[in-house]
Amino acid sequence: MKLLMRISLLISISVFVAGCQEEAKLPEKSVFKEDETVQDQEPLKIGFAMDTLKEERWLKDRELFEQAIESRGLEVEIAAANGDDALQIAQAEEMIQEGIDLLVIVPHNAEATAAIVHKAHGAGIKVIAYDRLVKNAEIDLYVSFDNEQVGKLQAEEMLKLVPEGNYVYIGGAPTDNNAHLLKKGVFDVLQPAIERGDVHIIYDEWTEDWAPEQAFAHMLEALEINGNQIDAVIAANDATAGGAIEALAQAELAGGIPVAGQDAELAAVQRIVDGTQTMTVYKPIQQLSERVAALAVDLAKGNAIEPTASINNGKSEVPSVLLEPIAVDIRNLESTVLADHFHSAEEIDGME
C-alpha cells in the first residue's frame, strides 16, 4: 500500500513539474512573436544602383525615385557609377553586404551587370531593372517605357516631314539594350520607305556612352561624306541630338534639317522652341519612379505583381511593366511637358 502511495505521489509530482515547464515556455513564445513583430515594423531598405548622373534626365530620376521610396516610409541608398562597370558592380555589392531588402539597378553595361544580379540572388535579394534591361540574367522584374515605341514615334514624325530623302541615324551606346530597342523601332517604321527607295540611310553609327561630343563628330563626318546632302536626322536621345545640332550649326544648317531626339531634356525643349530641333519623345519619369517604388515594395514583401509584358533578355522571359512614351513637338509642348510640370515656362527660354 505504501509503495502504491509513493508511486501515485511521484506521478503527481511529475505531472505538476511538466505543467510548470510548459507554463515557463509560454513567455518565451510570446517574446519571440513580439520580436518578430518589431522586425516586421522596421522599414524596408531599397538599393538604387545607377549608371550615371551626368545627364539631366538621370538627375531627375534620382530625385523622383528617392521621393517615391521615402514617401512610402522606406529607406533608400543610392549610388552612381558614372559609366564605370567595375565601380557599379562594387557599389551594388556593398549595398548587398549592408543588407538591403531589394535592389533596383540602372545598368551601364547590359551584360556586365548580370554579375550583380547573380550576387543579389545569392543573398536572397530580388532585383528590378529600372528603365534599362539587364541581359543574360534571371531578372525578377523590368520596368521601363516601351523603347521600341520611342523609336517608332521618332521615325513616324520624321516620315511625316520628310517622306523622301537622305536620313542620318545617330544611335546610342551599344552597351545599352535600350539603344538597340530604339534602333529597332526606328528601322521597323523606316523599312518600307527604304525598300521603296524613298528613304536612304546614308549614315548610321553608335555613340559610345551617349556622349554628345561623339555625336557631334558623327554628324560632322556624315556632312562631309555626303556633301551636306542630308534631309533628316534621327538621334537616339536629346544629348546626341544636341551634338548633331551643334555640328549642323557649324555647317550653317541648324533649323533647316529636321532632327528627332528623346527624353524631353530642357535643352531639347528650348531647341524645339527655337526651331533647331523638331521633336523629342517625352517619357513621364515620375510615372516610372512611382511605379518602380510601388512594385519594389510588393516584391520585397513577396506580394504578387501583374506584369504587362514579357521580354527575352537572352537568359529568360523577364516579367515586365512597360509605360507609354509621348511624341512632343511645338504643337503639344504645353499640354505635355508643361502641363506635367516636367519643365516650367520660366525655364524654357522664349516661352511666356
Automatic annotation (TrEMBL):
<keyword id="KW-0732">Signal</keyword>
<dbReference type="InterPro" id="IPR028082">
    <property type="entry name" value="Peripla_BP_I"/>
</dbReference>
<dbReference type="GO" id="GO:0030288">
    <property type="term" value="C:outer membrane-bounded periplasmic space"/>
</dbReference>
<dbReference type="InterPro" id="IPR050555">
    <property type="entry name" value="Bact_Solute-Bind_Prot2"/>
</dbReference>
<dbReference type="Pfam" id="PF13407">
    <property type="entry name" value="Peripla_BP_4"/>
</dbReference>
<dbReference type="GO" id="GO:0030246">
    <property type="term" value="F:carbohydrate binding"/>
</dbReference>
<feature type="domain" description="Periplasmic binding protein">
    <location>
        <begin position="46"/>
        <end position="303"/>
    </location>
</feature>
<protein>
    <submittedName>
        <fullName>Substrate-binding domain-containing protein</fullName>
    </submittedName>
</protein>
<dbReference type="InterPro" id="IPR025997">
    <property type="entry name" value="SBP_2_dom"/>
</dbReference>
<feature type="signal peptide">
    <location>
        <begin position="1"/>
        <end position="17"/>
    </location>
</feature>
